[in-house]
């Protein structure tokens, strides 16, 4: 668990920052929509998001499940604590997940009037303001109002109007504006936009009943997404537009009872349901080629064929509009017991029965390009984009559960062993399907459920008064692992979902913290081995584009997972005075390290990200129960590093990078009252 105070003081105001303190968490986001959150290498598909798949890591705020991964990109506001639960979940509350849960709890209203106000300034035009006020409305009703706003300029310069074209792609007479990606210069010719609007209503009701408590959580949420992307990542007019506006709504209802049956037996029982609906924007989801796309799609050395591809206007403005419609329901009955059959030994069995139903209706139509009766030219256009229509409906019932044996030899030591099963529900491809000789491969519309067998043993301890030491060893075997496939077919630019037969993830995690008077120290380390045990029908690697359509990558590593990841840091504070105010000076240093990892679902020698270490610091003065002022620096040594490497649309052998932030620095002033 991470307290809201620690997250606030360290500048971990979103999941991306928070992952630096929980090294078994992986978080990637090229846009809010294309966000993946994983724990121990499992959870979300890597790269682009497919809306027909459920996340494997649950994200909750005050008991409400957020179905859209984009929600994890938002800043935390007025946080009390953040819990990261690892391994399959579903017998205690909420939605079933295979990899774990982020459980965010905000501060509750207080009848005592108080509040905070905070302002931060930094380089790259960074401005962040936060405010929170709480107090009594009547003697039985209190409220809390919180607000947060953040602005920062980008770290990439678009030199579109300042570069001449020359000869890196000789057929197109084009050169990149910079060879070194850390020049942070691009010349994309389509505006970039990541506009999202989300909100909702939630009602939590608690009622004491007998020796327990009934909790009801009701919620409605919406998410509207309106993007604009240049998916060839260059100044060329190749894949000129990639815009997938979406409108999503969800309705949640959960009712659970938790309490004691007697002195030795307690439990939790409940029901959970979520209804979801997703639609495209009113004008559909758009992919549009330009006049240069012929060079990326060309796969023939025949001069006649080349001349046909180069026909003026053939692909200029040629595109598709897709209209995906998804309706889904997931309902469950769950429960877990805690039986303390001796003072030192406890048994915790849990079970979940889950029913899932999904329906998809997908329609895609072509538009634009050269209007012609020439059969050869129309065949070329159809090889780039074609009309497509299919629908599918599926329902499925699954059983999952867990059994934990806990042994507490003394009050400072707790040993445990857990066996659990979990699953991700059946998936539906919502971004279009690949074709084979002109035939839509509708057999790929449905993706089988992902099933996991998980074993874990661990120790939670406090061997000394001020020392905490935790150790966990785990092994997860996954069958029908749901993976995103990036194919060379431009018409499925976002890729499609498939199943890898078997995956294994295993590892060791340690957490150590020590507090002594005015000094606090922590270190966390995670070793993770995540491999495809069997995946015989994977897409080829980037360097094998143009070869076999499918390859066997059994034994390869999963994307986005470093074998080694860790964080270490501490804070030193001492009493003093500043401008006649008594308080504490403090100095803190945090570091985060991860080793090399693959950035492609199919391992590629071009898409491996080297390991890196980041160092952050802050120092300032804290007036007790009043004003705190501090200076902060992130990425002290201005380390260049990649967050992701992504194949270009159509997988024509080119790729783009998501860069980590350069050194940033600023000043924060916080007032409490």
UniProtKB/TrEMBL annotation:
Spell out the subcellular localization from the entry: Cell outer membrane
Fetch the Gene3D superfamilies from UniProt. TonB-dependent receptor, beta-barrel domain
Domain TonB-dependent receptor-like beta-barrel, chain residue ranges per copy: 152-636
Chain segments annotated as coiled-coil in the UniProt record: none
UniProt keywords (A-Z) are: Cell outer membrane, Ion transport, Iron, Iron transport, Membrane, Signal, TonB box, Transmembrane, Transmembrane beta strand, Transport
Q: Which GO terms describe its biological process?
A: iron ion transport
GO CC terms on record? cell outer membrane
Please report the record's description of how this protein sits within the membrane.
Multi-pass membrane protein
Q: Where is the TonB-dependent receptor plug domain?
A: 2-101
Question: Which protein family is named in the record?
Answer: Belongs to the TonB-dependent receptor family.
Query: What's the protein here called?
Result: Iron complex outermembrane recepter protein
């Amino acid at each position: 668990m991470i307290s809201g105070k620690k997250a606030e003081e360290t500048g971990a105001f979103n999941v991306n920052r928070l992952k630096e303190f929980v090294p078994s968490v992986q978080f990637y986001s090229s846009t809010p929509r294309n966000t993946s959150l994983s724990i121990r290498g499992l959870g979300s598909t890597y790269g682009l998001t497919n809306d027909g798949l459920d996340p494997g890591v649950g994200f909750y705020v005050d008991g409400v499940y957020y179905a859209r991964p984009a929600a994890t990109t938002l800043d935390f506001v007025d946080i009390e604590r953040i819990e990261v639960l690892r391994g399959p979940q579903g017998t205690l509350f909420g939605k079933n997940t295979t990899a774990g849960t982020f459980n965010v709890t905000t501060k509750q209203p207080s009848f005592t009037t108080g509040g905070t106000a905070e302002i931060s300034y930094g380089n790259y035009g960074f401005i962040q303001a936060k405010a929170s006020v709480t107090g009594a409305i009547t003697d039985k009703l209190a409220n809390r109002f919180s607000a947060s706003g953040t602005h920062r300029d980008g770290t990439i310069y678009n030199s579109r109007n300042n570069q001449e074209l020359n000869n890196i792609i000789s057929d197109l007479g084009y050169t990149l504006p910079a060879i070194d990606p850390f020049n942070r210069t691009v010349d994309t010719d389509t505006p970039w936009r990541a506009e999202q609007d989300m909100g909702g209503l939630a009602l939590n009701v608690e009622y004491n009943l007998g020796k327990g408590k009934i909790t009801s959580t009701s919620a409605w949420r919406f998410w509207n997404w309106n993007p604009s992307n240049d998916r060839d990542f260059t100044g060329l007019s190749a894949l000129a537009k990639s815009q997938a506006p979406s409108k999503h709504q969800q309705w949640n209802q959960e009712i659970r009872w938790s309490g004691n049956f007697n002195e030795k037996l307690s439990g939790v029982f409940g029901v959970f349901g979520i209804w979801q609906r997703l639609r495209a924007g009113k004008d559909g989801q758009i992919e549009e080629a330009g006049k240069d796309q012929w060079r990326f799609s060309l796969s023939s050395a025949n001069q006649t064929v080349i001349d046909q591809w180069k026909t003026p206007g053939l692909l200029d403005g040629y595109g598709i509009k897709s209209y995906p419609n998804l309706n889904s329901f997931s309902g469950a009955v769950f429960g877990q017991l805690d039986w303390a059959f001796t003072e030192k030994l406890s048994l915790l069995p849990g079970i979940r029965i889950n029913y899932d139903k999904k329906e998809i209706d997908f329609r895609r139509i072509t538009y634009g390009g050269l209007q012609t009766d020439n059969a050869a030219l129309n065949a070329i256009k159809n090889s780039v984009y074609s009309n497509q229509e299919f629908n599918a409906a599926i329902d499925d019932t699954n059983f999952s559960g867990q059994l934990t044996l806990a042994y507490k030899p003394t009050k400072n030591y707790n040993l445990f062993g857990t066996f659990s099963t979990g699953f991700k529900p059946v998936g539906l491809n919502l971004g279009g399907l690949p074709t084979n000789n002109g035939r839509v491969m509708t057999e790929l519309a449905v993706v089988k459920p992902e099933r996991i067998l998980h074993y874990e043993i661990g120790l939670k301890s406090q061997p000394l008064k001020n020392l905490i030491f935790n150790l966990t060893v785990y092994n997860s075997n996954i069958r029908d692992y749901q993976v995103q496939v990036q194919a060379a077919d431009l018409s499925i630019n976002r890729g499609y979902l498939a199943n890898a037969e078997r995956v294994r993830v295993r590892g060791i995690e340690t957490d150590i913290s020590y507090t002594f008077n005015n000094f606090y120290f922590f270190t966390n380390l995670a070793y993770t081995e995540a491999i495809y045990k069997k995946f015989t029908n994977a897409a080829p690697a980037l360097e094998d584009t143009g070869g076999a359509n499918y390859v066997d990558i059994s034994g390869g590593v999963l994307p986005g997972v470093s074998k080694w990841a860790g964080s270490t840091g501490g804070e030193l504070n001492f009493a003093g005075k500043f401008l006649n105010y008594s308080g504490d000076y403090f100095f803190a240093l945090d570091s985060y390290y991860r080793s090399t990892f693959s950035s492609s679902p199919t391992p590629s020698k071009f898409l491996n990200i080297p390991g890196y270490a980041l160092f952050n610091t802050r120092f300032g003065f804290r007036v007790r129960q009043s004003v705190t002022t501090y200076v902060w620096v992130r990425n002290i040594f201005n380390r260049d590093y990649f967050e992701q490497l992504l194949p270009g649309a159509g997988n024509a052998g080119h790729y783009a990078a998501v860069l980590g932030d350069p050194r940033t620095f600023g000043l924060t002033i916080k007032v409490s009252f």
